[in-house]
Each structure stands twice: as C-alpha cells, then as structure tokens.
UniProtKB/TrEMBL annotation:
It holds the Pfam family PD40. This is Biopolymer transporter Tol. It comes from the Bacteria. InterPro entries: 6-blade_b-propeller_TolB-like (IPR011042), WD40 (IPR011659). Belongs to the TolB family.
C-alpha cells in the first residue's frame, strides 16, 4: 500500500498510483476514427496524461480523466478541456461510464464506486464496505442498458499480491448487495453489458495456457453460459459495444505481454457481437488508458481513443 501524498491542489494521490504522468517527450492525443473510412482526426494534444474517453449520448462532449479528476472536451475538437466539478471524492481513476441518458457519470475512486451528475456536483458512493477483507476494491467497467445495474471487477489480496484475487461482479446502480459472477481462480477484467443487456462481455485468462494470455469472453449476467469469442495468440482486453449492439471494439496487445501495460504498440480491433474474424481498425502506440471504457460516438460510425506518441 502506498501512503498517499498531497498535491498542491489538496488532492491525494491514489493508494495504487500506477502511471500518473507521461514520459519525457511524450504527448497524449485524443483521436477519433471513422470505422468505415478509417480516417483519423486528432481532437486534442496534451502534455498531461489523459485517459479513457467516453462520448456523451447527445454527441456533444467527450469525457476523459486526468490528474485524478474528470474533464470534458467538445466532441468537435473546439474549445479546451474543462474540469467537471466533482470535488467530494478522492482520486478518480480511468474507469468511468455514462448513464444511458447521459445525465450521470459512474466512476471508480480509491477502490469504491460513485455516481455524480455529468455536469458536476456532489458524488454519492454506491459500493459497499468490506471490513472483513483488507484492501477489497471495486473497478467499474459497465452499466446495464436500463441503468439498474453496474458491472465491475473486484480485487482482494492473495499471497503477496494486493490484487491477486479478481472476480466479475454486479451491483444495483443505486446501491445494494453485490453479486459475484465468477470464482476468482482466473484473472478477469473489463466487464461490459451487451446493448440488449443479455450478456456481459469481458476479458479473462480462464482459457490461457500461459500467464497473461487474456482473450474475450461473454457470460450471462447470472454468470452462466460462458463463451469464448477470440482465439488468437495476442493479448485481448476491454470489449466495447457500438450503439446498435452489432459489433464491439477491443484493444489487442502483442503476444507475450502481461496485463494491459502502457507505452507499447497495440491494435484496436473490431468483431461482430456473436464472434468471428477480428478486423484491425488502427495500430498505435498506447495501451493502458487508450480505451479502458466505452468510447463509441452515438452515431455508431466513430469511436474515440487515446494514443501516447513521442513528441520528439
């Protein structure tokens, strides 16, 4: 556990800080790609580490996280980043999703789940305390189409690893009892609901023959009917559905890597919802923070992502 330090703005660093800044000479680029023409547009370049774009359902804004806070940018690239004033929470990480109507944003902060108005205001905690488990943590990834349920990854210590035991879970969006979907034997991450709410798609090593070899799977929300959807030697993470539910995009790492690291060559791939042959949409230098949560535009033709090239 890292002892929190206090920044000049009074915001404390996270207990699990991860990457908090870019490398010397590196920039963050918020890009949008048209999946039909493959034309890419750079909406923003920044020397600040920005992560995980969410496109608002009205198409007007793209929301990212940076320095433990949430920001928004006009989706046409005009204007500057504006901080969303949500101040009664600790360090916000790169797991945040929007309600289907775009009025609320749900996010992870210091191991808990919160909800706040998308325009800013007080946040409310919706996750549970687990005093019986030291360092139990929630990591948000999905929201059901009716906004009744959130899908998350829970982590708890196992051996010397503070996050060694991982499970998929769901919880009522307004707060309530947790439902554990999996048994914690394998690594799980990135749970996201299909657009009809009938499946939860996720990445896991449950079929891996070596450490780190995550593939895309789906299960029913009750944890049943596990199905594997990708079957290659690459490391596949974070499936995100297009608005019409017909396809999803995911991030694909080169073979041999562990987890979902930053600063490496990755592909953003697209696949039909029922599986099939994946299609590479673009290749970039990125990884962690590129598409941790759903990034699709409401028109279903574009999605946003973050690349982290060198500015030199």
């Amino acid at each position: 556990m890292t002892i929190p330090s206090t920044h000049h703005d009074g915001l404390k660093s996270p207990r699990w800080p991860g990457r908090q800044c870019l490398q010397p000479g590196q920039i963050a680029q918020l890009r949008v790609i048209d999946v039909e023409t493959r034309e890419e547009t750079v909406l923003l370049e920044s020397d600040m580490l920005i992560e995980s774009p969410n496109w608002t359902p009205d198409g007007e804004w793209i929301i990212v996280n940076a320095k433990g806070r949430l920001y928004r940018l006009p989706a046409d690239g005009s204007g500057m980043l504006e901080r969303i004033p949500i101040d009664n929470v600790p360090w916000v990480n790169n797991d945040h999703v929007l309600s289907p109507d775009g009025k609320r944003i749900y996010f992870s902060a210091e191991g808990h789940l919160y909800v706040a108005p998308v325009t800013g205001g007080d946040a409310r905690k919706v996750s549970n305390d687990h005093p019986e488990i030291q360092e139990y943590s929630y990591w948000l990834h999905g929201i059901s189409p009716d906004e009744k349920t959130l899908a998350y990854v829970s982590t708890e210590p196992e051996g010397s690893d503070p996050h060694g035991r991982r499970n998929l879970g769901t919880i009522p969006a307004h707060g309530g009892p947790d439902f554990q979907m999996t048994d914690g034997v394998n690594d799980f991450d990135g749970p996201e609901y299909s657009r009809d709410g009938q499946w939860i798609y996720y990445n896991s090593e449950e079929a891996a023959t070596c450490d780190g070899h995550a593939q895309i799977f789906r299960r029913r929300p009750d944890g049943s009917e596990r199905q594997q959807l990708t079957f290659d030697d690459r490391i596949n993470w974070f499936p995100h559905f297009a608005p019409d539910g017909s396809k999803f995009v995911y991030i694909s790492y080169e073979p041999g890597l562990l987890s979902h690291p930053a600063d490496t060559m990755v592909e953003l791939r697209m696949m039909d919802a029922e599986g099939g042959e994946p299609e590479t949409v673009t290749t970039l230098f990125g990884g962690q923070g590129t598409i941790n949560t759903n990034t699709w535009a409401p028109d279903g033709r574009r999605f946003a992502f973050i690349a982290y090239p060198s500015a030199l």
